[in-house]
Amino acid sequence: MSFHVYLSGEIHTDWREEIQRGAEAAGLDIVFTAPVTDHEASDAAGDHLGPASEGFWRDHKSSKVNAIRTKTLIEQSDLVVVRFGDQYKQWNAAFDAGYCAALDKPYVTLHGEQIVHPLKEVDAAAMAWATTPAEVVEILKYVTRG
Predict the structure, then answer these.
(1) Judging by DSSP bridges, how do beta strands 30-33 and 128-130 pair with one another?
(2) Alpha carbon distance 55, 31 (integer Å)
(3) 111-146 pLDDT, tens per residue?
(4) How far is CA 55 from the centre of its chain?
(5) Strand locations in the chain, DSSP E?
(6) What is the CATH number of the domain that holds 23?
(7) Assign residue 107 a region: left if phi > 0, alpha if psi is -120 to 50, beta otherwise?
(8) Residue 114: which residues within 8 A CB-CB, separation 6 or more?
(9) What is the pTM for the complete model shown?
(10) Residue 7 contacts residue 81 (beta carbons within 8 Å)
(11) What is d(CA 111, CA 119) in angstroms, rounded to the nearest whole number?
(12) How many C-alpha atoms does 64 have within 13 Å on its Cβ side?
């Protein structure tokens, strides 16, 4: 039986690929899903619904279309990994973590020590805090193999 893991958060580094490679190398039966990681495509997700008079309404439409994917994949997952990078504020990742907490869906946070304080509430509800993709792979090994 496959274990389903949703990889949420930061889109500017290859952390998703590192986790996927590590899981594959370990022979883990895991299905990985993620949000749309092409920033321009994500921003344009609602453009086909008609012109928006302001940037707010373009973002509003696109966020709702993106939420169809995000909510569905989080709900279908067994575990969510939420990555917070150092360069940008990932408000969407914090929202995903809160959604997981509301659903009682287990999640792991992935971020460096320098942002522990601003993420204290997010980390408090997480099942684990990892600082590297390799640590996430070790969690996945344990969770799927016992």
Answers:
(1) unpaired
(2) 35
(3) 999 999 999 999 999 999 999 999 999 999 999 998
(4) 25
(5) 3-9, 30-33, 79-83, 107-110, 128-130
(6) 3.40.50.450
(7) beta
(8) 86
(9) 0.94
(10) yes
(11) 9
(12) 9
pLDDT, mean over the chain: 94
Q: Retrieve residue 81's tokens.
A: 């990994």
The whole domain housing 112 covers: 3-145
Q: How many domains does the chain have?
A: 1
Measured distance CA(29)–CA(24) in Å, rounded: 8
Distance CA 64, CA 16 (A): 24
99 to each of 96, 126, 142, how far by Cα in Å?
A: 5, 12, 24
Enter the tokens of residue 19: 């986790």
Element (H, E) at 47: none
Gap between the Cα atoms of 62 and 93, Å rounded: 16
